[in-house]
Amino acid sequence: MITKLHLVNWKSFEDSIVYIDPLTFLIGTNASGKSNVLDAFQFLHLLMKGQTLEDAAAAIRGGEDWIIRRGQTWFELGVTIEKGDLEYVYEINVKRHNVGLTFLQNIIYVSAKHTKEKVFNEEDVAFDMSSNISLAVEKTLPNQDAKEILAVVRDALKSVFILNPNPQAMRRYSKLSKELQMDAGNIAGVMAGLKPEEKTVLEEKLTGYVKPLPERDINKITAVKVGLNASDAMLYCYEDWNPDTPVDARGMSDGTLRFTAIIVSLLTLKPGSLLIIEEVDNGLHPSRAKELVKVLKEISAERQIDVLCTTHNPVLVDELGNGMIPFISFVKRDKDGNSYVKLLEDKDNLAKLMASGTVGDMMKEDVI
Asked: Which domains does the chain have, with CATH numbers?
């Protein structure tokens, strides 16, 4: 599992560490830098899928022009991954030249967890590679142990999934699919493409979680194959007030569709994945915050999927409860405009601030 992300000169960040737990929340005002954290994960994910530095940079918000903190010519990203008794640290240092972006460093270190003792010899676990890591691996790694090390890092970063549901895309017919797209536009195709027994289980769980969302109970959400070749699918919803006439996705609310996408992603991603959801409560009524918290806690724990969410909603943060304070970080800008991340539990005078209100109150008052 990914446990830490280190950002140096990345977009608006000067030098910050983001800690990742089984369920992590990132809060902060508009333009504080929350989305830049998500972009870092996406950038590393794209590199591990085989994209070049230039292509991965172009896919990030702002592109290559905004990928490096203003006034600087390089950035560094580091990811810590824990597996068993070992800790893997993957670090890249990238510099901008006249000809584009180049690696200054592209290294993996392995050590025993919580110690500085190297488990393998330095030459076996630290690699300087001048080109894309996924392309260079077969040519540069000296032995099988090293390949296994790289496989751990690659699998962890390839298993990062950033979800940004687009209700308009979800309302369309979609081709049968095996993996959910970032905008969840193929959600009907993913559900309908499951084996019958898997589809039944997913739809039962999905319906159970979505049922209390609207004012009138939802009896069932299902995906149905359509077309002469049954190669497309559409999402349908059955409601109490008209149980015999289903509503297709075109008639479903934005909030219901977004909530459905979150649940389906949690139920279909492979265990060990990191699911990242920007503005997780977007489109949901504040009174339904408890339903969202229930989904995130229960399904992620059941399926061993880590979840990182951003939110502006003080009601949702309060619904998490004080027990979640160690797993909430806030992002702010300093006097020079540089973003930084800080654990909420490390905030100065936190106990005093909470004596006069909740974490949500502190958000509304712009204390965090």
From this structure: 2-159+274-280+299-364 (3.40.50.300), 167-256 (no CATH)
Q: Exposed, middle or buried by CB within 10 Å (0-12, 13-18, 19+), for 133?
A: buried
Unique residue bearing structure tokens 């488990």: 119
Task: Give this prediction's pTM.
Answer: 0.93
The one-digit pLDDT tens for each residue of the chain (368 residues) are 999 999 999 999 999 999 999 999 999 999 999 999 999 999 999 999 989 999 999 999 999 999 999 999 999 999 999 998 889 899 999 999 887 899 888 888 888 877 766 666 666 666 655 445 554 544 455 555 777 888 899 999 999 999 999 999 999 999 999 999 999 999 999 999 999 999 999 999 999 999 888 766 788 999 999 988 899 999 999 988 777 789 999 999 999 999 999 999 999 999 999 999 999 999 999 999 999 999 999 999 999 999 999 999 999 999 999 999 999 999 999 999 999 999 999 998 888 888 888 999 999 988 88
141-145 long-range CB contacts below 8 Å, 24 or more apart?
A: 145/120
